[in-house]
Write a structure and sequence with these properties.
CATH superfamily: Amino acid/polyamine transporter I
CATH class: Mainly Alpha
Number of domains: 1
Strand content: under 5%
Radius of gyration: 22 Å
Order of helices and strands: HHHHHHHHHHHHHHHHHH
Oligomer: single chain
Helix content: over 70%
Shape: globular
Largest sheet: none
Number of strands: 0
Length: about 425
């Protein structure tokens, strides 16, 4: 077998680095503030649920190595209209999710400088807009440079978290983990929507199947090792935050370092700020690439007319500024943006699970779990999640009806109405 250089051990690193992004610096503290001590258990439950998401996209990687994204799987299993719908949802993901990281960066800057003016919503939104513009400009650097910066920044972030946690040990009061009041169902649902944001990224590695030796074995090996690492890291971050005295900053590193002298606190917070900016830049790059890919699918000559992707970056920038203007006006907060991003991703995950089920002609345990997780989370995350669930169900029903009318105008349809090319491209049985 040809050696491609992507071994099973390398896949473990890619999985962990894809999921442990800037969320580790932002999300654990927010979940504890919303759900109290229940947030610790919430991280474990969602981590176990994410095993199914990782397994689903490992299956996609193994049996769909030519796919260049979730949209390709959705198109193969359900048709072009739903693939376009998934494109639109993913674009909205970037428009909503990236400004959340911009707001987190603005909060970090306020903590570093200590300026009270930087804590107001309008000023934080303006500072976040500046961070987003810088990220858009930085996304025009060579991909190799961006990848190197991203990889090193996250390594540094992990070191900073470990160091800050060690320095915070004298302040930890473990009785706080169970002493916090439970805020009720609403707080738990909000925390779940925010926490799920941190578990996004399992789909990224599915694009590398064509470069992996023995993907059937490698992806299973990687999942068994990557999922526990991710779950444990987030669990430790959440329980450490819960053990801190209540009332401190919501972001992890500032909370851990709040009692330290400025000579120690400021450098640690500044380094974690750099990690968030680097992660935001990676998201911006992903959004621009997705926009370019979607536009090329609709108009094959698009990439020739705009080879540097200036138009998608311009559109994304305008979208970021509009979203941040809403945040500055007090219409919503960073918590809302994180929860909405989770809802949007769950919509796409559900579509991918449904499409892959139709491609494989059978419902796997991983796909069934992802569908159930998406349905429950979307129905609980009202009103945005409920609206997305209703729109998606209507879109799926409409697509099924369209297929039935196209393939059998005189009959109500047949169970196997997938595109003919899928039956030729994809095996009908899982390899042993």
């Amino acid at each position: 077998m040809k050696d491609t250089g992507l071994t099973a051990r390398r896949l473990v690193f890619l999985y962990v680095s894809s999921v442990l992004g800037a969320g580790i610096l932002v999300v654990p503290g927010l979940t504890v503030q919303h759900a109290g001590s229940a947030a610790v258990a919430l991280w474990v439950v969602l981590g176990i649920a994410c095993i199914a998401i990782a397994a689903l996209f490992a299956d996609v990687s193994t049996h769909f190595p030519r796919a260049s994204g979730i949209q390709e799987v959705v198109e193969a299993g359900t048709g072009r209209p739903l693939a376009i719908y998934s494109d639109v949802v993913l674009l909205v993901v970037y428009l909503v999710g990236n400004p959340a990281m911009g707001l987190a960066s603005a909060s970090y800057l306020a903590m570093i400088t200590g300026a009270a003016a930087l804590t107001t919503a309008p000023v934080q939104a303006a500072v976040a807009a500046g961070f987003m513009v810088v990220s858009v400009l930085a996304s025009m650097l060579p991909t190799r440079v961006i990848g190197a910066v991203q990889a090193w920044s996250m390594r540094v972030a992990v070191v900073v978290i470990l160091l800050a946690s060690a320095l915070a040990l004298p302040r930890l009061e473990w009785e706080n983990v169970t002493a916090r009041d439970f805020p009720g169902t609403a707080g738990l649902v909000t925390a779940a929507g925010i926490a799920f944001y941190a578990y996004l990224g399992w789909e990224n590695v599915s694009l590398l199947a064509g470069r992996v030796d023995d993907p059937q074995r490698a992806f299973r090996y990687a999942i068994r090792r990557a999922v526990p690492v991710v779950v444990v890291v987030y669990f430790v971050a959440a329980i450490t935050f819960a053990a801190l005295p209540p009332g401190g900053p919501a972001l992890l590193v500032p909370a851990l370092t709040a009692a330290l002298p400025d000579a120690v606190r400021v450098p640690l917070v500044a380094v974690s700020l750099v990690a968030i900016v680097a992660a935001t830049n990676a998201w911006v790059l992903g959004g621009a690439s997705l926009f370019q890919h979607a536009a090329t699918r609709l108009s094959p000559g698009w990439s020739t007319r705009d080879p540097r992707g200036l138009v998608p970056r311009g559109v994304l920038t305008v979208g970021y500024l509009v979203v941040l203007a809403g945040a500055g006006a007090g219409a919503f907060s960073m918590d809302h943006l994180l929860g909405w991003t989770s809802c949007l991703f769950l919509t796409v995950y559900g579509l991918a699970a449904y499409a892959f089920t139709r491609v494989r002609r059978r419902l796997t345990l991983a796909a069934a779990t992802v569908l159930l997780l998406a349905a429950v989370m979307l129905l609980l995350e009202r009103p945005v999640g409920l609206v997305l669930a209703i729109v998606t169900v209507i879109a799926v029903i409409a697509e099924r009806y369209r297929h039935a009318r196209t393939l059998h105008p005189d009959h109500p349809g047949r169970p196997d109405d997938r595109p003919e090319r899928v039956r030729d491209d994809v095996p009908t049985r899982l390899p042993r």
